[in-house]
Write a structure and sequence with these properties.
Helices cover 38% and strands 18% of the residues. The protein is an alpha/beta fold. Bound molecules: adenosine-5'-diphosphate and magnesium ion. GO terms for molecular function: DNA helicase activity; hydrolase activity.
Amino acid sequence: MAIDDPVTVLPGVGPKRADALATLAIRTVGDLLFYFPYRYDDLQVKDLTLAADQEKLTVKGVVVSDPVVTRFGPHKNRLNVKIQVVHAVVLVTFFNQPWLKDRFTMGTEAAIYGKWDAGRHTLTGMKVLATQTEDAPSLAGIYTVNKYIRQSTVIDLIKAAWQRDGQNIPDVVPLAVRERLKLLPDQAIVHGMHFPSDADEAKAARRSAIFREFFLFQCKIQSLRQDDLNVANGLAIPYDNDELKALIKTLPFDLTNAQKRSVNEICRDMRRPRHMNRLLQGDVGSGKTIVAAIVLYATVTARYQAALMVPTEVLAEQHFAKLTKLFADFPVRIRLLTGSTPGKERRATLDGLMTGDVDIVIGTHALIQKEVNFAALGLVVIDEQHRFGVQQRKILQEKGLKPDLLAMTATPIPRTLAITAYGEMDVSTIDELPAGRQPITTTWVRKNQLRDAMARIKTELLAGHQVFAITPLIAESEKIDLQNAEQLYEDMDHAFHEVAKVALLHGQMKNDEKDAIMRAFSDGEVQLLVATTVVEVGVDVPNATVMIIFDADRFGLAQLHQLRGRVGRGSAAAYCILVADPKNETGVARMQIMTETQDGFLLAQKDLEMRGGGDIFGTNQSGLPAFKLGDPVGDYAVLNTAQQAAETLFEADPGLSAPEFAPLRGYLARQQQTQGSLD
Ligand code: ADP
Ligand code: MG
């Protein structure tokens, strides 16, 4: 199809420019057509009496003064010119663009786009616009670009793509759906997004484009689900209930009701021949590991093998140690496989997996290497699932006869959103913490009120406990992050070196360095760990009692909650100290709610409602896919409608075999092919 042609079919696009476009994920003509602006500059002339202060707008009138350039610093100058607009005279100022002087002649007409100062009745000019061309667009799209490609180039190429293929854009959203929901066809979406003749056209296009984006995502989920529903694709695991009960009896605690319910849901799925694709969702510390252990064991009683994949070596070692202890009196052969497993041991484990002499393997990414083969893999469990890409999950699954999959996540997502986000999965939720948990006392202090916090840290260190000190990652500059972390490390070391060994852990360290430091902290050799957010991931150090988080207002609530969950795991009282000078009311409210509740789901809900600076959905923390246009929170109703539309469609025609679904079918097939490059 024409719009699937590579961008190199367009004039002026050679291999180099194609590479530059690829950095924006633009590879085909269609990618260009659907590369939408994130906002518009309004070039339409505005009635100044209605203009808001600091609004960006266009002023049009007659030049009534000679343009004058004045210097006011070694490299600074301003250009002033007066424009008569209706009955008023507006002073327009351009900074550091003296050459624009030539664009203004007394007595002629001029149009200028700029920022309006309503108090002074002046305009800070940004652009001089052409006044003659009647058909000049009134809204100019502004596109995301990077250092490899310029805004104007992207705009030119989109125009070229439109000229070439604007008439050949197939409609992927079925006509019936579009008519029912009053949505525009794809061609009108593309036109309205790029070249709207007014704000209404842009708005209508955007509405349809958001639906389209959500709908296609939901269709992808539905088609994944089709595979799972197909009985022939799955594996029945006839586990032994009595043996399972025997294991549960040896636990040093009673399972919570939520844990029991989750175990039952998972076991029921496993026994069935259809493929299991289930998400186990539970707040930090809710006890997901034991649920995983039980179902891993269930798999073994059915004479199948099981694999548990985790994101870090430290976590793999922790799980391995725990499960080895748990299975000590049971006939389970369990092995650890990570990047640092010594060669001989590694070969033995690989052999054992191949012959079936190893029942359970726990490991990191090392598990998805080519050399790892199983005799009869029945279940794959993935801990902290959002840390792995779709592709990595898939590779491990393909090592068996379509083994059952259990993904675990501690990111609390409100139920409504979970259904949409993980639509292809069934969800089990542990919504209850084990009894007798130590509450974590959370306090919020301003940066100049650190004294009590430092005293608390000292007391805890002297009592033999451990402390986490966290500083945020600021995406824009890794260098500044590192400086912040190093500075904090020096401050902490200076303050506490007499009572504690202090170590620094940051994102730019190599993996084995990180693991070594994490291990030293986990073993108690280091008592105070200064870290960027790398500690989020599941480590269990019960002796840690203080979590102090600097610039806490830079984190989302869910992230703060995750970090806080790293303490309060032992028998001693635990403390979480948030250090922040929030800049607005939302920031203050966010700090306050953290001190008031420890319920992850409630926090997630609040996060949705407040949507302040750092939100859970902005980052990969949530495991929610990143949408380009739609906002799964703000546009939730649309997401929901799209989900229902996709579900209905697939119920009626699971294979999308009707001719009118051909474009959609083609789209999904292409998506599957390029799946590997998605993450
Ligand atoms: P997470 O869900 O964050 O992965 P873990 O599985 O690490 O949580 O469990 C946290 C701690 O709670 C562990 O030390 C575990 O042994 C303990 N635990 C799990 N279930 C129970 C329970 N039902 N009663 C008491 N303690 C439990
Ligand atoms: Mg865990």
